[in-house]
Specification:
Elements: E1 2-7, H1 10-19, E2 27-32, E3 42-43, H2 51-60, E4 65-68, H3 71-75, H4 78-84, E5 89-90, H5 94-101, H6 103-113, E6 120-123, H7 126-136, E7 140-144, E8 153-156, H8 159-171, E9 182-186, E10 191-200, E11 203-206, E12 211-212, E13 215-217, E14 221-224, E15 229-232, H9 239-259, E16 265-275, E17 278-285, H10 292-299, H11 304-308, H12 310-313, E18 326-333, H13 350-354, E19 359-363, E20 366-369, E21 372-375, E22 379-387, H14 390-401, H15 417-420
Parallel strand pairs: 1-2, 1-4, 2-3, 4-5
Antiparallel strand pairs: 6-9, 7-8, 7-9, 10-11, 10-16, 12-15, 13-14, 15-18, 16-17, 18-22, 19-22, 20-21
Helix pairs in contact: 1-10, 5-6, 7-8
Bound molecules: adenosine monophosphate (AMP) and glycine.
């Protein structure tokens, strides 16, 4: 098969790396891709938002399957454009991607279907939102309805923060049109985990549960980021909880989508809080997680093409889907991220880091300048490591990270702490 991967981050690098090992894949293109993919993919000078140029390329180059990494093109309807032209693409159409693109739609769908999610109200008027806040009290969570690059949710432990969040989103428009509407929901406490399922309409293949570390600094301090590191599997999640997630969250969400006449082919990646009252959905995403994918691809034993295609080519053997052991991914970020940061800084040590047993370094925000690898984003590299135990995977990731350097480099030192007990 000839495949095209859309996106440019470490998630897409991990997918490309795993696709390159597939018996079924003969040629890989990436658009726009990144320097880390060059050993196994041809990178195209096309941006993820150029839907019709990408579809034309897929037609002319006889691409058998296009795989979409980020949410923006999915929410914008790239899959609809491809399917209208008879092209196979992995990722939901705009109607399905609205599950991620509109928190109000997601909450409505879940509440109507009885899928566990926090109590909420939607507002398009700041005065009404503020009045509701006064009546409800803190702690409370204020979220921009649309996509705000993972920064649109404000967990307000006090009323001042809550009022300020409404003002920023609805009046000052710090997230632009993503703040046309807001969702205000009850504050939940517990362990936050990620569930990833490959979906084909009503059928799904659940992948290993993951735990991300969203805050920038150790001990969950600092601002929310796109994700500072992940580990999998999760030793603290019981089988019954996992089964509840499959049945009452994944299957139930797919059924609710089907009832709305929305076929869902792609990834359902949900952030779930394990509360004292059971698992509750914080949000649904309609694409692979980043940095979840880096850890998952490293642990996956099965041909990734068979996983993406599971409903058509299989049955996949669940007992041999994964390698034994654990995997982690660790984000190496620019100093200042998720705020402002410098780019163009030389990166050293990636080849040395890749020599650590069980380690794969994936590129997140890098560029080549006169043959020198330089920083080009907030999250710069993602160090993924596999080990026979979680301890070994974590140690390998940190040993590799210590070999890498660029000015201002930052990473958390406590990834997988919850799993190490
Ligand atoms: P979201 O963009 O909805 O995933 O929210 C970003 C982060 O805010 C989540 O990963 C949680 O850590 C936190 N969060 C979101 N909703 C809630 C909630 N209802 N209660 C507590 N924390 C939340
Ligand atoms: N790991 C967070 C995300 O992909 O949204």
């Amino acid at each position: 098969m000839r495949v095209l991967v859309i996106g440019s981050g470490a998630r897409e690098h991990a997918l490309v790396w795993k696709l390159a090992q597939s018996q079924r894949v003969s040629h890989i293109y990436a658009a726009p891709g990144n320097p880390g993919m060059l050993p196994y993919a041809e990178c195209l000078p096309l941006a993820a938002r150029q839907f019709s140029a990408l579809a034309t390329f897929a037609e002319h180059s006889h691409i058998d399957l296009t795989i979409v990494g980020p949410e923006d093109p999915l929410v914008g309807g790239i899959s609809d454009v491809f399917r209208e032209r008879g092209l196979r693409i992995f990722g939901p159409g705009a109607a399905g991607a609205a599950l991620e693109g509109s928190k109000a739609f997601a909450k409505e769908l879940m509440t109507a279907a009885g899928i566990p999610t926090a109590q909420y109200r939607t507002f398009t008027d700041a005065h009404a939102a503020l009045a509701y806040l006064e009546q409800h009290g803190a702690p409370i969570v204020v979220k921009a309805d649309g996509n705000a690059a993972g920064k649109g949710a404000i967990v307000a432990l006090d009323m001042g923060t809550a009022r300020n969040a409404v003002g920023q989103i609805m009046t000052e428009r710090v997230f632009g049109s993503a703040g046309d509407a807001i969702v205000i929901e009850d504050y939940l406490q517990g362990d936050e985990i990620g569930s990833t399922a490959i979906c084909n309409g009503i059928h799904y293949l659940p992948l290993m549960l993951t735990q991300d570390h969203k805050r920038a600094f150790d001990g969950d301090q600092g601002l929310n980021t796109g994700g500072m590191g992940v580990f999998t599997p999760l030793p603290f999640v019981e089988r019954a909880t996992e089964m509840f997630i499959y049945r009452n969250i994944i299957a139930a969400t797919l059924q609710a989508l089907k009832a709305h006449n929305i076929p869902f082919y792609g990834v359902l990646y949900s952030n779930i809080m394990l509360t004292s009252k059971g698992p509750i959905v914080l949000e649904h995403n309609t694409r692979f997680g980043d940095p979840e994918t880096q850890a998952l691809m490293l642990l996956l034993r099965e041909d990734v093409m068979n996983v993406l295609d599971f409903a058509e080519t299989m049955p996949v053997k669940l007992d041999t889907l994964w390698q034994p052991g654990s995997a982690v991914s660790l984000s190496l970020v620019s100093g200042g991220y998720p705020g402002s940061y410098h780019t163009g800084l030389p990166i050293t040590g990636v080849a040395e880091a890749n020599k650590v047993e069980g380690v794969q370094v994936f590129h997140a925000g890098t560029a080549l300048r006169d043959g020198q690898l330089v920083t080009a984003g907030g999250r710069v590299l993602s160090v993924a490591a596999h080990g026979t135990t979680l301890r070994e995977a974590v140690d390998r990731a940190y040993e590799a990270a210590a070999r890498i350097d660029f000015e201002g480099i930052h990473y958390r030192r406590d990834i997988a702490k919850r799993g190490l007990g």
